[in-house]
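Internal QA ticket QA-208
Title: Verify multi-chain structure generation after dependency bump
Assignee: T.L.

Test input:
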Amino acid sequence: MIGVRRESGLMKKDGGDGFKSLRGSRIAAAIFVGLLVGCVFAFFYPDGFFVIHHQVATSDSEVVTSSCETSERINILKSEFVSASEKNAELKRQIRGLTEKLRLAEQGKDNAQKEVLVLGEQQKAGPFGTVKASRTNPTVIPDESANPRLAKILEKVAVNRELIVTLANSNVKDALEVWYTNIKKVGISNYLVFALDKEIATLCEANDVPFYRKLETDTSFDSVAKTGGNHAVSGLKFRILREFLQLGYSVLLSDVDIVYLQNPFDYLYRDSDVESMTDGHDNMTAYGFNDVFDEPAMGWARYAHTMRIWVYNSGFFYIRPTLPSIELLDRVANRLARENAWDQAVFNEELFFPSHPGYEGLHASRRTMDYYMFMNSKTLFKTVRKDSNLRKLKPVIIHVNYHPDKLERMKGVVDYYVNGKKDALDSFPDGSE
Ligand SMILES: *[C@@H]1O[C@H](CO)[C@@H](O)[C@H](O)[C@H]1NC(C)=O
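Actual output:
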């Protein structure tokens, strides 16, 4: 409950930032109108209190300044001019942002066209069956100051402002090697290892793997990377991700126990804040279903209908740089810092629980990835490997999330899908033993 309260506080803060620009432009408009009215008044009463000079401040600015006899009035006008100029610059920056989005939309590389519609005017609803709300929120304006060193690396590594990111320390070295070997084999260049210790940085350097070495002096993330337990490191992941989003990049967050068989960027929809692989294993569990709860004592009303969906996998998801996405990361990181909770559970609760008394839910749009293309190891070992048709499918990735013998199963997956060894998956039990 305490965690929940703190989160609503956090949310309000972020929401406030979101509104600032809107409020700013209103203030700018008000100042502009105020100045204009003052000038008109002064024009018709030139012998009154004021002596007026009209001037257009600069060639690219439409702000009109006035001056008058009393120095106090001059000072007020001066400060109004400065403030109006600032607002003007802010408006221009917003227009530049919109122009950039339009450009992206024309290239068909973003759903930016929809974003502009969201920001546009009020609309009539339109005829029955033709109405479609947007699930594609506008991206934030990139803020390089969030991490200038990382910004430089991302300029080189990212393609179309998106990339795969994994966090690794030396505990997962072996899996990491399988991870980047297969990424390279598939021909993906836009990926980055966030190296949490020196050994991983050295490994990446030696193998020509793009990496970012976390420094002790690095901004917000503390020393948990080295000393922290599992939960602390999980919390760190969401803090680190935030910086990528602040810099304006979409991130495909990836655990290391994942084998890449195709380029995932060819299979993303990019229409939602969060597009995630599922822990589900069939249409119902992956995409949601009506689970009827039976309470015979209620007689006529014995059946209560419930909504169920297997959780999103917080080890493989694509997240766009939008306010709801960043709010999600903040809320999850904030809760993980205070509660001894499983990051995946928290991630899902924040994504799915609606607002209710005493709680403000997150309004992020979500998409579940195809569970055969972005396949978890339960689906593979329980179903797919035993079905002659499904065996022929070529998934995009396999995530060995359901099994503790990760390295062996990852190698089995590579042997089966990459090296064509038909029996490479046969020796493994369905679950762990
Ligand atoms: C699962 O859903 C897909 C479409 O999402 C459909 O093509 C397929 O037939 C469904 N499978 C089953 C077993 O219902």
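Spot checks passed. The pocket of 2-acetamido-2-deoxy-beta-D-glucopyranose is lined by residues 283 (CB under 6 Å).
Status: verified.
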